[in-house]
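Morning, I've got a small favour to ask if you have a moment. I owe you a coffee for this, so here goes:
>
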Amino acid sequence: MTAGNYTVFIIDDDAAVCHSLMLMIEQEGISVQVFDSAEAFLKQYDPDSKGCIVADINMPGMNGLQLQEILNNRGGVLPVIFLTGYGTIPQSVKAIKAGALDFLTKPVTRAKLVAGIRSAFSECEKQQLTDKHHRKAKNFLSKLTEREKEVIVLVVQGLSNKEIATSLGISHRTVEIHRSHIMHKSGATSLLELVQIVNDADLNEQNLSNG
């Protein structure tokens, strides 16, 4: 990961604060975009963006916590660092519980801000990788037939082909064929890898069966 691939989205209604933050961040060779409101940011928000958000928690109109809630509902992966001049303890607790990476008070030092941003970039990278695996796993599930879904439920439980055959009332050979098709569709090369793909999709027996 290099900072050049990531962007810091500053959201603050105070133009002087935005300018100061932008200078500190750009001096680290990091790309910056500035918005004077949460609403302005949401108008151009791209869920595939890489980087993090540095937002004031107290703003006219939509505040930082409301923005965070909207992004969470949209499945956003941009970590949020809140920056405020008079944040309260309940605000900070609520922000962290909702997934905020940090809650800093103004004025913030350049070292502390940049450290938080680099930590956020690492978190963003991990989240995007997780989402990529999740989408791949969901796509795999959509390719399975109903019978293959029944088989994979039992496979991930650790049942043998013979036990699966008995449970489903089909032949041992039919189970082998279904398992072969499942492995091919998943792209997995081992049972362990197949189980990991299922785990990546956050699937349980019920939604495997329901598809």
DSSP finds ten helices and five strands in the chain. The two ends are 36 Å apart (CA to CA).
